[in-house]
Amino acid sequence: MDKTLRILLTEEGAEAEDIAALTGFLRAELLQLDVDDVTTVVGEQEVPPGARAVDITTIGALLVSLGSSAAGLSQVMNAIREWRGRCRGSPPTLRLTLDDDELEISQATTEQVSQAFDLFVSRHSTIEA
């Protein structure tokens, strides 16, 4: 069964353009992996007259189609971990959602991120026979 991982990047006080750039860098890295696709999320609601056309909750959102590969999620999580480690300054907050499981990482050490990511992957690595 194909799975889709939703990734949301946010950063306190960041401009929309900065979040869009970070999201683009992460998307480019994820596209190098053995995944079916990585798409940006387009706002789902109409913009009311006079409102800003940018929905800050979708600027940093990606959908990763993992396909049916058992190693797909693990590869994606490793890539996100490495990418986050290279972010200069304070890394952005990440909210990862797969099925009904959600993981949010904000201010955490590299070790804490690794442990949380490993646990997240283990919860979704059951192989269906």
Characterization of this structure:
This protein has 129 residues and is of the alpha+beta class. It has helices at 16-30, 56-59, 72-86, 110-123, and strands at residues 3-10, 37-40, 61-67, 93-98, 101-105. Strands 2-3-1-4-5 form a five-stranded antiparallel beta sheet. The radius of gyration is 15 Å and the shape is globular. 21% of the residues are buried. Mean pLDDT is 82; it is low at 44-55.
Number of strands: 5
Mean pLDDT reading:
82
Summarize the amount of helix as a percent range: 25-40%
Number of helices: 4
> Roughly how many Å apart are the termini?
12 Å
Instruction: Provide the gyration radius in Å.
Output: 15 Å
Question: What are the low-pLDDT stretches, counting only 5+ consecutive residues below 50?
Answer: 44-55
Strand order of the largest sheet: 2-3-1-4-5
Topology pattern, helix = H, strand = E? EHEHEHEEH
Report the structural category: alpha+beta
Query: Could you say which overall geometry the principal axes of the C-alpha atoms support?
Result: globular
What summary fits the major beta sheet?
5 strands, antiparallel
Strand content: 15-25%
